[in-house]
Structure formats: C-alpha cells, structure tokens
C-alpha cells in the first residue's frame, strides 16, 4: 500500500540579486574571467525549492605588506611570495584555483605601516596585472584612512568592476560615490546585527547607490567563537530576502580566513595542546569547517587563506551544487 | 493519519459550557490556547475521555524523542520543534557515532573503541565528545566484537547488523544497555522489530527514500516499536542533505506522522575534508545521529565545536555568573585580571591563565553577557563599574601588590581607575592568547 507523502517544497516570491564582478576588455576592464553570484530563489542548496543559478565562490586573501601574525601552518604555502602581492595573487589563482582575489590594504593602517594611497595603488596595479580574475579590495578598516586611500584606488581600478569594502552605518558616502564614479560594487558591513545590516543598505540606497551593487557582510566569527550568532543572522537575512524584502536580498560575503587564523584551535601547536592533534591538519580543518557552516547559512562569497581548506571548500560547493551526481 | 487539530476542531470536543474552570473566559479561548500548545487539554476538568483520546494522538509532539543507551552516558535525540534555530532553538544535540568493524583483530578493535571514546574536549565550560560506538558487522565475529566494544567503552552502542539471528546473539550477551539497533529494512522488519521489543531498544530503520521509510514505520508501529530513528538511505553530501530537509519539513511543517522521528545520516568516504563537510552539513541541517568512520582529534574537535555552536540556545545570553574566580590556588602575590561575563570571553581567559600555570584571580564584571569591546561600546564596561565590582569582591585586600590587570582592548580606562583608586593599573594583552607570555614574562607582584 503506497502512502501519499505531502509535498514540502516551498516557493519564494523573490530571487536574491545577481551580482557580477570583473569586466572584460569589451566592457572596459582587463579581466578574462568574470564571477557572478546570487540569483538564487531557494535556501542554500535546497535545489528542490527553486533555482540556484550560481554556485558560491572562494576568494583568496592577498596583502599589500607581508603579514606578521599568520601562524606557520598558513604562512608556509605563501612564504616565497609574501613580498609581492602580484606573485602572491598569481599563486592563489594558478596553483590554488582562487575564483577571486581579495587584496587587503593592511599596510595603509595608520597604526601600522601607514602606507600612502600611492603605495596602495601600486599594490592594486600589481595584482590587476598579475591575474585576470576579479578583485575584492578591502581597506585597512580605519574610516578616515580608508576615505583617504580609496579615491586613488577606485580610480586606478576604474572600469574593472571590483568589489570595494567596506561601507558601514557611519561611513558610506565616500565609497558609494567612488564606486558609482569608477564602476565598482560595494561591501555593506554590519556588526552581527540584522537591523543595522538593513540600515546600511538603506543608507547606500538613499545615497543613490543601487541595491543590486551591494554584497552584504554581516561580520564573521570563527567556528567556536560566536559563529552561531552570525549563522543565524545570515539565515534570517536570507529568508527575509527570499520572502520579498528587497533590502535584504543581497548576496552575502564571509571573511573566514581572517577570523579562523586568529583562534587558538587553528593556531596552537600540538606540543601545547597534545589532545587536539596535529595543527597542520587541525588548522585547515578549522577553516574548512567554518566555511562549510557558512555555506549552509547562505554565504555566496567566502574569503579564505589555506590552500587545503580552499580546495576542500570548492569540492564541497561542487557536491552541494549537484556536480558528479 | 492524525493531523494536528485546529482550534475549532478542539472546541467541538469540549463541553462548550464556558464554565471558566480552566481559567479561560470561554471554551473557544481555551481551545485556541490548546491548539497553540500553550496549555494542556487536561486543564479543563470536564473534558471527556473520548475527547482526550481524540486529542491525545493529535497533540503528541510532531517528532518523537528517543533515548539511546542507559545511565550517565545515555543520549536523547529528536523531539525537535523548529526548522531554524532563531524560531526557538534546537533541543537535543545530534549524537556523533564512530564506526568500528567487527573483523578487526580483538586488540585493535579495543584500541579503536578506546580512541573514539577518548575524543572528549572541554569548550566554554561544557564537555563535548563522541556519543556512540557503532559496531558494524563486516563478516567478523559480531557478538564477540560487541562484547569487546562494551568492555572497552562506557559509551552507548549502535549495533549495525542486517542479520537478525546474529544481532540476537550479540544482544543475548549484552542487550541491556539500550543500544541502537540498525538496520531494519523491508527484508528483515519483523525479526528486527521482535529484537527491539524483546530488549527494549531503539531501532534504526533504513528505507528507500522518504516514501519507503513511511511505509516501514507504519508496520513497525503495528509491531509495537515506536522508538525509531530514520535513515532515508541516501549517501553523499547533497542527497543526504536533501533527504534530511524533506524529513524535517514533513515531520514539523506537515505533521506527517509516519516520519515524526529522529533521523540518521552516514558520513562516508576517504577524504577527511569530505567527512567533515558531511558532518557539518548534517549537524546544521537536521540529522539526529551522524555515523563516522574512525576520526582523529584534529577532525573531531571542529566537528564537535560546530555541533556545540548550532545547538546553543539563541534565547539565552551566553553569560556566566559575575564573581571572583580563582584559578590554580592564588595567594597574596597572585595577579588580578579583569574580564567580562560573556561566557566565551571568560572561558578563553580562564583557559589561557590555566595554561600559563600562574595562579591568578579573575574578577568578572557583569556586562550582561557582552564581550570586552561590545561591553565598552555599550557602557557596560566602564572604569566606574570595574572599581565598584572589584571593591565588592574585596580582592585587593587579599593581594599584597595593589596591582590590577585590565584587558588591552580597554587600555583607555587605565588612568581613570588609577586616579580614583590608587591601584596600579596594568594594561594586559588585547588578545587572551597573549596572557601566558604576559603572566610569565611581564607580571611581577613587586
């Protein structure tokens, strides 16, 4: 006797906005590969509910100065290229298959190397020349300095359709104006707070920036360090977007590597924590596990560091998109 | 099939006298509350036995709770009520099981079981670990292997054996611990059900998809087995995730009783990253038991941390009691560290102080569960509050150095505290990870 099983598929009224990064020579840029994210009309990998046209993508992180605080496990693969953002980016794309490069202008931090806007531009140019994938360019995070640096950077990358970050509730006018003037997209940052997330989008919109040009960054926590808060904010944001809230229907970005490689579980050598096992396996596992969790919460772009974790995350994305099935 | 009743349907089963003995103004008001599961039907003293029977089934939780094992290490799964943790919370952390084949040499089998059992860690004040040992029949001596696993571990067992005769032999030797039996299939259903009834064990059912499962659970219920755990038979990341989402929605959104049970998923493959991806996905999306091949601590730790995160109650602020904590038996020479009562912050600081092997006092300020930076931004970690709390604790009378260490992230509070109290305020590291080096190299009482 066959039992009739109810249909549990859920259809959503709105698709997530589609965001394309990069521009080909015909479009005024120099990229050979473009990346498109968003467009899904379903919860993460719930293909039975609706279309998921674009898989999430992994961006790899490149700095404008050699990092000091990366632990040995994640330094090792890049040791030979830390001095040159171009070579570093090339290694990420050619050897490790990065879909995007996230160039982080850490060197501009006034409390650190305090590099000039011109030096930042050099780093951007180096990376644009070295690789042909789209770029994320992330400021040093000090609002005044970012507002000082981004005018030159946005201009130098004119027409390349980069993703620039970040705008916040308190600092969004300069970057949205620059992105409009020079043809870029923008990362909208909020501090693990769904209301502020929406507010930043509204501010950008009111400043004349199109909602379709935003990628939301709800902040990121490493696995074990508040991940559940971000996870749930992302789930709520995605559900709201799919159910018709246009101010919440943006693709989402998580900054996995930066958070993960700061925590003890990824860093501590086995001599210090014998019961945790070998850090050469544990560190990349921690980064991959953090990435997997955010994939299930709705991440469209993941910024990561360790090549093994990147490989594994790309593999998981392939499986979740039904490749090889 | 029994569906959840609406308020109107419940109303029709009530006396409809509006007597108010239930505490509600009308029978209708009471019926609506019962339908919303805010109150129990028996709060009406006049309700008939027929109405109770009719409602009993319909008001049962949409997903059954099943206990695996007995005693301290028994593990409850299922009983979930929502699809998303923000709607309420996830109630019962899924069990992590580690498989051990029965064709291993006895000593190796014991060693593997002990290894899996030892995968226990303390994070944020909670012990997290592997919950089940799954002994799998792969042509070896199953009863002996089960016996050996039981001797080597105090964890509950899952017994994977399709042959009811062999499973019966294993149960005869050690069937009193409520192991999870698996798999009941269309081929061995009656015999497996009989074993589950005889030994009062929960039973894992493997079906061909959701439809297949629904057909089997009905028969098992007739055979008297209700403590079921469902395996939809899917293997691999996407098929399993898809099946788990369907089962959860059917159970909770549609109250489809044939699948109103906890679920079972297998993480399979040789690449440890693939195992981890499956594990994390099934933890996030709805498995009640996840079975792994042998795993090391490097993989177990992130997996268990993911489970801990996802099953954290989002409604409870993650705070610990604000008081004076003593680590390692501090004395008059010991440092006094200030931190917040956000659980994660406190336990990170405590862990690092322990690691430094320098006995210390930790004066925890009540920041209502916020971390250092958030608390500072929100005016819940101020110089005034630190001074007041530290004075209340009386800790400065118990030390002889008059020094206090504040978090590096609130270095800005140093002068205010110093001027107000005369204590020597030392700015500690910004990150807890810097505490051991700080206490060993920079801390000096005099």
Low-confidence stretches of chain A: none
The level of helicity of chain B is: 40-55%
Q: Largest interface, per-chain counts?
A: A-B, 53 and 54 residues
How large is the count of helical segments of chain B? 17
Low-confidence stretches of chain B: none
How is the CATH topology of chain A named?
TIM Barrel
Describe the structure.
- The complex is a heterodimer of chains A (325) and B (446).
- With 325 residues, chain A is α/β, with parallel strands linked by helices.
- Chain A has a single domain (18-320), classed as TIM Barrel, CATH 3.20.20.20.
- Helices cover 38% and strands 15% of the residues of chain A.
- Chain A is built from eleven helices and ten strands.
- Chain A has helices spanning 72-75, 85-95, 117-130, 143-156, 173-182, 194-206, 227-242, 256-260, 264-267, 279-297, 307-320; strands at residues 18-21, 35-38, 57-63, 100-104, 135-138, 163-167, 185-189, 214-217, 252-255, 299-304.
- In chain A, the strands form two sheets. Chain A has an eight-stranded parallel β-sheet. A two-stranded antiparallel ribbon of chain A has the order 1-2.
- In chain A, strand 7, helix 6 and strand 8 (214-217) form a beta-alpha-beta unit.
- In chain A, helix 7 runs parallel beside helix 10 (279-297).
- The model of chain A has no long low-confidence stretch (mean pLDDT 96).
- By secondary structure, chain B is α/β, with parallel strands linked by helices.
- Chain B has three domains: 7-59, Electron transport complex subunit B, putative Fe-S cluster (3-methyladenine DNA Glycosylase II, Chain A, domain 3), CATH 1.10.15.40; 65-310, Dihydropteroate synthase-like (TIM Barrel, Alpha-Beta Barrel); 324-442, Rossmann fold.
- In chain B, 40% of the residues lie in helices and 17% in strands.
- Chain B contains 17 helices and 17 strands.
- Chain B has helices at residues 7-13, 27-35, 49-59, 106-117, 142-152, 164-174, 189-198, 209-222, 237-252, 272-284, 297-310, 343-356, 372-377, 383-393, 395-398, 414-421, 435-442; strands at 65-68, 75-78, 95-101, 120-123, 126-129, 132-136, 157-160, 180-184, 203-206, 228-231, 264-266, 289-292, 324-327, 336-340, 360-365, 403-406, 424-427.
- In chain B, a hairpin with a 2-residue loop joins strand 4 and strand 5 (126-129).
- Chains A and B meet through helix 7, helix 9, helix 10 and helix 11 of A and helix 8, helix 9, helix 10, helix 11 and helix 12 of B.
């Amino acid at each position: 006797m066959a039992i009739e099983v109810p249909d549990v598929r859920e259809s959503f009224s709105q698709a997530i906005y589609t965001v394309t990064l990069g521009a080909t020579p015909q479009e005024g840029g120099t990229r050979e590969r473009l990346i498109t994210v968003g467009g899904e009309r379903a919860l993460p990998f719930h293909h039975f509910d609706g279309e998921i046209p674009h898989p999430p993508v992994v961006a790899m992180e490149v700095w404008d100065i050699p990092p000091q605080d990366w632990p040995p496990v994640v330094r090792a693969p890049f040791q030979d290229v830390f001095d040159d953002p171009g070579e570093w980016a090339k290694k990420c794309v050619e050897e490790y298959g990065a879909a995007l490069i996230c160039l982080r202008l850490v060197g501009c931090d006034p409390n650190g190397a305090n590099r000039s806007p011109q030096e930042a531009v050099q780093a951007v140019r180096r990376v644009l020349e070295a690789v042909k994938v789209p770029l994320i360019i992330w400021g040093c995070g000090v609002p005044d300095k970012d507002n000082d640096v981004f005018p030159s950077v946005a201009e130098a990358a004119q027409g390349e359709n980069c993703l620039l970050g970040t705008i916040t509730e308190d600092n969004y006018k300069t970057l949205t104006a620059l992105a409009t003037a020079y043809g870029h997209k923008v990362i909208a940052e909020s501090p693990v707070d769904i209301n502020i997330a929406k507010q930043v989008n509204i501010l950008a919109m009111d400043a004349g920036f199109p909602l379709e040009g935003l990628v939301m960054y709800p902040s990121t926590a490493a696995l074990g360090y508040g991940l559940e808060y971000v996870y749930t904010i992302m789930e709520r944001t995605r559900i709201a977007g799919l159910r018709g809230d246009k101010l919440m229907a943006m693709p989402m970005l998580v900054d996995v590597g930066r958070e993960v490689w700061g925590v003890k579980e990824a860093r501590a050598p086995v001599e210090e924590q014998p019961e945790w096992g070998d850090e050469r396996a544990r560190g990349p596992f921690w980064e991959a596990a953090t990435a997997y969790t955010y994939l299930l919460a709705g991440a469209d772009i993941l910024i990561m560091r360790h090549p093994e974790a990147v490989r594994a995350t790309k593999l998981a994305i392939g499986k979740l998109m039904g490749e090889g099935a | 099939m029994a569906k959840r009743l609406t308020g109107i349907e419940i109303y029709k089963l009530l006396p409809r006298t509006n007597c108010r003995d239930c505490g509600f103004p009308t029978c209708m008001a009471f019926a609506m509350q019962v339908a919303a599961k805010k109150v129990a039907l028996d709060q009406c003293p006049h309700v008939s036995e027929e109405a109770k029977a009719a409602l009993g089934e319909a008001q049962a939780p949409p997903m059954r709770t099943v206990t695996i094992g007995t005693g301290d290490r028994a593990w409850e799964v299922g009983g979930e009520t929502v699809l998303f943790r923000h709607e309420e919370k996830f109630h019962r952390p899924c069990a992590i099981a580690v498989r051990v084949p029965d064709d291993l040499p006895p000593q190796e089998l014991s060693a593997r079981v002990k290894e899996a059992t030892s995968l226990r860690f303390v994070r944020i004040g909670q012990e997290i670990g592997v919950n089940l040992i799954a002994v799998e029949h792969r042509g070896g001596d199953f009863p002996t292997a089960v016996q050996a696993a039981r001797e080597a571990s105090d964890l509950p067992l899952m017994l994977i054996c399709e042959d009811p005769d062999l499973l019966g032999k294993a149960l005869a030797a050690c069937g009193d611990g409520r192991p999870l039996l698996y798999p009941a299939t269309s081929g061995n259903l009656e015999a497996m059900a009989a074993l589950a009834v005889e030994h009062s064990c929960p039973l894992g059912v493997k079906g061909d998809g959701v439809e297949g499962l629904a057909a089997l659970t009905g028969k098992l219920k007739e055979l008297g087995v209700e403590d079921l755990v469902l395996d939809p038979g899917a293997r691999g990341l996407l098929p399993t995730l898809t099946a788990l989402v369907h089962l959860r929605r059917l159970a909770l959104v549609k109250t489809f009783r044939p699948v109103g049970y906890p679920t079972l998923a297998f993480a399979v493959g040789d690449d440890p990253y693939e195992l981890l991806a499956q594990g994390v996905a099934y933890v996030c999306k709805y498995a009640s038991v996840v079975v792994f091949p042998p795993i090391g601590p490097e993989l177990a730790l992130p997996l268990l941390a993911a489970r801990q995160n996802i099953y954290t109650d989002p409604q409870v602020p993650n705070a610990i009691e604000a008081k004076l904590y003593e680590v390692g038996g501090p004395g008059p020479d010991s440092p006094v560290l200030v931190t917040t009562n956000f659980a994660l912050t406190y336990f990170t600081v405590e862990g690092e102080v322990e690691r430094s092997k320098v006995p210390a006092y930790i004066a925890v300020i009540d920041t209502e569960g916020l971390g250092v930076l958030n608390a500072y931004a929100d005016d819940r970690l101020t110089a005034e509050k630190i001074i007041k709390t530290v004075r209340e604790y009386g800790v400065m009378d118990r030390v002889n150095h008059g020094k206090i260490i504040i978090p590096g992230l609130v270095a800005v509070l140093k002068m205010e505290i110093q001027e107000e109290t005369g204590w020597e305020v030392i700015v500690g590291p910004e990150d807890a990870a810097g505490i051991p080096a700080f206490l060993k190299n920079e801390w000096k009482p005099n």
